[in-house]
Each structure stands twice: as C-alpha cells, then as structure tokens.
Amino acid sequence: MELRITREKRSLSGVASVAAVLLVFCSSSWVVAESGLGMGNPKRGMQIYKELCLRCHGEKLDGHGPEAQYLKIAPADLQSLSSRLKSDWELLVVISHGVMFTPMHGYRDLLSEQDMKDILSYIRTEAPFKPIT
What we know:
Mean pLDDT is about 80; it is low at about 15-35. The protein is mainly alpha-helical. Helix 2 crosses helix 6 and helix 5 (about 90-95) crosses helix 6 (about 115-125). Helices cover about 60% and strands about 0% of the residues.
C-alpha cells in the first residue's frame, strides 16, 4: 500500500513538472510574438503570401479570397480576434503542417523555415498579435 501511494505522488509531481514547463514555454512564445523577436522579412513574406495564400485568405487576410467561395470549410480570417490571439509558434505550426480535415495544407515540403517566418512576419504586420489582457 505504501509503495502505491509513493508512485502516485511521483506521477503527480511529474505531471506538475510538465505543466510548469508548458506554461513557461507558452508564455515565452507570447512574449516573442508580442516583441517581434525572431521574425522574418514582411516584404518578402507579402510576395510569398500573394503566391500561395491570397487565393483563399484574401488580399485583406479576411478569409475572402477569390477561391474561398469554392471551399466547403471557410479559410481562417487572419484579422479575427481568435487568429490574432494565436502565438507565432501556433501560426508557424499551421503554415508548416496545415490543419487536418480542412483545405489548409502544410507547406513544410515547399517552403523553408525562413520563408514561413517571412509569411508570419507579413501576417503580423497586417494583423498584429493581440494577447488577452
């Protein structure tokens, strides 16, 4: 009985440790997102956006691109509050890997990491990060 309690305490302390690490990681990504550290070139990102993203997400990044009407699932409105609340890391994951069961496919096989940071930089220029305050 004593051994079982000790194991349960260890597993709970392990969960707490993982939660603490995730909290630090997530909060630091918000700091990076707000401060603009590690960003790419927004002018270059605009060109890549126009080539790959504009047709669905639109010129105003509002999800109303010329091909959006043909999609069963609407493209994300990158100007919306929910998109602006996402950290840079979250947006880079979407650009890289896409969103499962939606028309948003990943670009990790087509774009370099710098290309994706450039797109993100352009998006942040047009739709700045807005943390919950």
